[in-house]
UniProtKB/TrEMBL annotation:
Protein name as annotated: Glutamate-ammonia-ligase adenylyltransferase
InterPro entries in the record: GlnE (IPR023057), GlnE_rpt_dom (IPR005190), NT_sf (IPR043519), PII_UdlTrfase/GS_AdlTrfase (IPR013546)
Segments forming domain Glutamate-ammonia ligase adenylyltransferase repeated: 44-278, 534-773
Native source species: Sulfitobacter mediterraneus
Start and end residues of each PII-uridylyltransferase/Glutamine-synthetase adenylyltransferase domain: 307-440, 812-925
Gene3D superfamilies: Beta Polymerase, domain 2, Nucleotidyltransferases domain 2
CDD domains per UniProt: NT_GlnE_GlnD_like (cd05401)
Example GO molecular function: ATP binding
GO terms classed as biological process: regulation of glutamine family amino acid metabolic process
Amino acid sequence: MTTSHLSSQITRTPRIFDSSRAADAAPLIDGFDPAVAGLVQGAVSAAPYLMGLLEREAEWLRGAVEDPDTAVDAVIAGAAELAASDLADGLRRGKRRVALMAALADLGGAWSLEQVTGALTDYADAACAAALRGGLAAQIRRGKMPGLTEDDLPDAGGMVVLAMGKMGAHELNYSSDIDLICLFDETRFDPDDFHDARTGFVRATRAMSGTLNDLTAEGYVFRTDLRLRPDPAVTPVCMAMEAAERYYESLGRTWERAAYIKARPAAGDLAAGERFLKALRPFVWRRHLDFAAIQDAHDMRLAIREHKGLGGPITLPGHNMKLGRGGIREIEFFTQTRQLIAGGRDPDLRLRGTCESLSVLADKGWVPPDVAEVLTDHYRYHRTVEHRVQMVRDAQTHNLPQSPEGFARLAAMMDKDLPELEADLHERLSAVHELTEGFFAASRAPAPDATKEAAADHVFDHQVLDRWQSYPALRSERGLEIFERLKPDLLARLARAAKPDEALLAFDGFLAGLPAGVQLFSLLKANPQLADLLIDIVSTSPALAVHLSRNAGVFDAVIGGDFFSDWPGQGALTEMLAETLATEPDYEAQLDGTRRWAREWHFRIGVHLLRGLSDAATAGRQYAELARAVLTALWPVVTAQFALRHGPPPGRGAVLLGMGSLGAGRLTATSDLDMLVIYDPDGQDSSEGKRPLASRLYYARLTQAMITAMTAPMAQGRLYEVDMRLRPSGNQGPVATSLSSFESYQKDEAWVWEHLALTRADVVAGPAALSADVAALCAAILRSGRPGDQVLSEVAQMRTRIKAAKAPDGPFDAKIGAGRLQDIELFAQAGALIQGRAAHDIVDGLGAAEASKVITADQRTALQQAYDQCWTLQCAGRLLSAHPVQSDKLGQAGEKFLARTLGCDTFADLETQMTQTYAAAAEMIDTALPVPPTNQANEAT
């Protein structure tokens, strides 16, 4: 006896329930291994159905117990070899054998739940494939399938059978019907042949269903249900894929989305089936966190309970293990709802099996690990009980017995004493109900009266409240219904603000700009803690509030798992975005995907700064790393798309050279990206593609394609504004510059201000070899140096021109004006240029100025501190508004945010502090620079 023998795998044995039936089985298993014989007798003594299987398949079983897995695999494989004349009887014979062995391996603990349901499902797949082939072959022989021959039978001429429900998940129960959706690929037929083809496929589907479903003297194969297809009352049993796709796009409901979580091509043209399911992903897996699905799932649960009369307390007699309280469906709804919520954002959650889905949900933080473990254990137990009540008479039932005798039978099959079984069942059903009901209850907002008292202390302006129903987000019945449940809690939170009426107006502005509300309101209902963050944002930052109203989906990131974790860094961000882009189906989707991804990370940086989780210096670096990650990941995508028409980049390719704040690695929430594109044709005159272009024109158009990719107002908005005015010859020059032209210009023609700008240049994206060469060239150009007195004189004149051209916009304009950001940056760049080196960080530039004896060490420290204060105000201010901060337009929350961020007790203190800072910094720079001549050259700045 080998280890594969059934006897070596038995871990439990059902108790004898009907001794007379056990005795009747003895002659049929004469000579069997004693352990197997005991298992068989215990099984058939409790289950008349199993006794009937044994009577017909005892001889097959005698050989099969030697190696159950191999025996069942042979039966499954044999379905494909059945001749047409033996198809119906042969499939029924195979079903008997698989059912008999699965029952014995289940009752004896030889197979796990997954092995039992897997064997039943694999046979269902094989039976569907064989029955479909038989039905389709008959239509082909009769000439009813235009253009098809028997050579088309392997892929069913483009027809696919989608397994739904438990069959799709590889979880068929012991006496399960099979839910199928039958579709065909209409593109394989001429339009004139469409109706004939559809008629042929419909007939083949009916024949397949009859072969599987009809009860004959040999039994039946599987009860077959074709009603999960779109609108089954009016649609044929086999539909064109295009028609089904249109239905789901326009009319699909949440329960159909949930059904397609488990959908799987099981027979026929599997490749066409996978293509169809891929096309349906946007319907099933929403890109946002879909908390609206919770209410839909809850409504479905209640509807099932009401329809089946399954409400009330848990009592064991007659309790439905599938649909009743604490039953299998509760666990499945619990799992699938979470998958629907987050599966659009995380492909790892798009699993079919219940247990494996719970495991991944726990790994991803969507389900507490202990809850997932408990529910998995209960699910396996529930399914085990379900199998035993079905084995008794092969009945499609999920109900526990009604009588004491029935419970005694079940206890014998479970190898348990009756009191132990009853206690275990009640405890497990109650635990499942408590866990799952708690989830759906927690996902519903409190009733209106629950928070009424919290808002009673403040009376809001009813003119504001009354106009809310006219806003776009509240025009849908469902949106209004969810919001009305949220409203008391929101008003209570607004009432707790320092200035409630001011907070109300800020929220009113946000609500007015919200184009749709169901998803956001559902998210807030399921996660009430987000309401405080929402009110904080809209009260403090009008700019962030406008962004949020237009892009409410960014709230998904707050509860997506890593919103408050450590910043990943530019390298990890680039990898994340590259992985995201690799999953998008086409170029336009890649551009929209980039916008969606970048918007969430951009929002994260802003919220962290707003909430004091990071400082302005950190936020500036993170904004820059995000922009660089976008450029690094998107540049090859744009290049590859451009190359489809015009061929690969000629020569060595092109790099993106970051300038200004991008090159320095410090941006604000509203910064443009200053860039140059430098390419090296390496002697190649033109590209090689379908439509070749001269190298110069190629890179000019490629650059324009990149600018469009960044700035085009697509469905997901713009990415960034791009500024290329720092290129040689400014706006009059070409948008892309060859390496040789860049070198020649910088060495022979560049103005001082252009070399000043070059001190902050840094290669962001492009081929490694060319990137290294460009970086080396920039360093060499700076090393060639400029006389210190010339640099300082030019900077002094530039300051004068800047002052004449634009005055600062009040005391909170931290950028423009003497002693402010731009002024200190320009001075630091002068120090770097005098030293003949790059200075991406302001510390390096001021250090270079000190090394050149332009300023003292104390002045360097003071200017660094002044710059830090200016940057903090600039970065925090840009979070509040795209324009310089105006004190009369700030609410109290905005004033407190700015004061707190800059370490001041009051907003008035902040104004005083900044005015003094500007004056002190300006004086130091004035002292260090020569007095500009009265007649200045009109050098461009």
